[in-house]
Prior knowledge:
The chain is an alpha/beta fold. The chain is built from 15 helices and 13 strands. The strands form three sheets. A seven-stranded mixed sheet has the order 2-8-7-6-5-3-4, sandwiched between helices. The protein has a four-stranded antiparallel sheet with strand order 9-10-13-12. It has a two-stranded parallel ribbon with strand order 1-11.
Amino acid sequence: xxxxxxxxxxxxxxxxxxxxxxxxxxxxxxxxxxxxxxxxxxxxxxxxxxxxxxxxxxxxxxxxxxxxxxxxxxxxxxxxxxxxxxxxxxxxxxxxxxxxxxxxxxxxxxxxxxxxxxxxxxxxxxxxxxxxxxxxxxxxxxxxxxxxxxxxxxxxxxxxxxxxxxxxxxxxxxxxxxxxxxxxxxxxxxxxxxxxxxxxxxxxxxxxxxxxxxxxxxxxxxxxxxxxxxxxxxxxxxxxxxxxxxxxxxxxxxxxxxxxxxxxxxxxxxxxxxxxxxxxxxxxxxxxxxxxxxxxxxxxxxxxxxxxxxxxxxxxxxxxxxxxxxxxxxxxxxxxxxxxxxxxxxxxxxxxxxxxxxxxxxxxxxxxxxx
Length: 371
Ligand SMILES: *Cc1c(COP(=O)(O)O)cnc(C)c1O
């Protein structure tokens, strides 16, 4: 039976890796018998969203028999006001991952070329492969930064789409303003630049991080900036992300391939409420950035190499296989993300959590390294 099912698949699909979402808290509790879990595996904001979100969601049970607004109009207007774009340039998705999905569905034919880095955010690679595109992966520099020269040279070869996470997930490195300007100069017409700014709210606190929107507007090529409510805004469980596109025509293309009611009522309401309390978001981001710098020093003091990070996570080189260390952390109730890609199986990506979670993580890491 299984082989008959496989024969039904498009040839691109069976070889695709399944997205590595990591272990759930419930699975770790059950498997290791621990009650307290430090969730440091998925770059969530441990401080959660503004209290206004809970207020906005309180009356929701009375509305759930109605479909959501398929155009997310009120949310798009709010996002347009903040970004200086028009609502017609904004696309909202069930997480920004769904916008990556729409872009690949709408733009990629088999054999077309997509450019990204290694290690990458998994979906920057998986969705293009789903369409039969060829994915070129650029290596990091030895100092765990972006290789700007290699990026410029590869962009000049005119891939259909360049997936550029700034800052990078899982590494945390960034293209600064000068590097970003060079990338724009190198990108020919006919290439869509997808600038994934999932961590922009954190990265803005790192000197040199580019203000990409005005630079992209001046540049005048084809681009879309992706952002999300899942990280700094604390709404990962509700799934809502958005894109700001160079032109309404790109949004209209995505409208043809997206699921019409993909952004549910709770997600639309919560995102609007969160936007009304930017101070809450900024506070939690400022706190996390201070904790990140503390964690970086503490992990380096254990003798490990850590990539500089403009985000809410750290990419840590253990100098040994990550499997046993990860097992020891799980047994202590600490969930992080052990990288599985060849070449990076000595790395852990550790999300910055609360002081208590960070302390437990450090203690477990110290014990695991001593074992
Ligand atoms: C977390 C993340 C996203 C996806 O976020 P959604 O939850 O789907 O909005 C997209 N890109 C990068 C680089 C991320 O780290």
